[in-house]
Amino acid sequence: MAAPDYSHSLRDVSRYPTDLLKQHDQGIEVFATYKKVWNDGFGARGWKLNATIGDPEIIASTRQTGLRINTSVFVHDILDHFLSGFGISGHRSEAMALVQLAKRTGSDPRPDFKQLVNEDIMNGRVNGETLLTFLPDRMLALLPVDAELTNKEVISYLKDAMGADALVEALVDHFFMLGRKGKDHAVESWQKLGLIPQNATRTGLALQALLEKVDYEAESSGTDRLDVSIVLNNEECVFIVNDLSESVYHKTIAR
Question: Is 53 exposed, middle or buried (0-12, 13-18, 19+ CB in 10 A)?
Fold first, then answer.
């Protein structure tokens, strides 16, 4: 059997469509949309990169951060997925993006990996590929040869063979392994865009500071929709926003 093709998880950032990302003298420009209510089955308020619109796995996010991480999911989607050249959704892409998030914020990705394992993989769900291409060879070797198993049957078989706790831990380790495979691609992607990878932490904090201001104003004003350009370079972040009292928001990336 031929080795599975994982290229669907990697993107060449220099080939993004210009309606999603532009490179120009001011840096790079990405495009996003805010809605008071998204008609996508979730009905959430918040922001989506235009690159994520139409992806059924993506829920709009706001300025809110978690207890462990000082930037929002929206910043994660921009820096750790889109600009790092990973797919916006899919478990393999998320593994790579969460390793970038950990590098950028100093957070431990293990709780997120364990949540993905318990909520999705242990229930036979994997996004972006099949379960059999996602699992490591050492687990595939435990399955009966030539048996046609459903995803849930595969997990049930592995639970019996390894024990549920051991399977969870092995899958978490697999997420770490997958995530580390994206490190070089992320660095190369930032460099292709003219961005300094070592600036990721400061860039994330600058983006978060702008998002907190713009999102608060959008929420307070009750606006239904905003179309936004986000310009990034190695010196500053800029939000260019339609229909707010201030149309341009600047934040210097501290050195």
Answer: middle
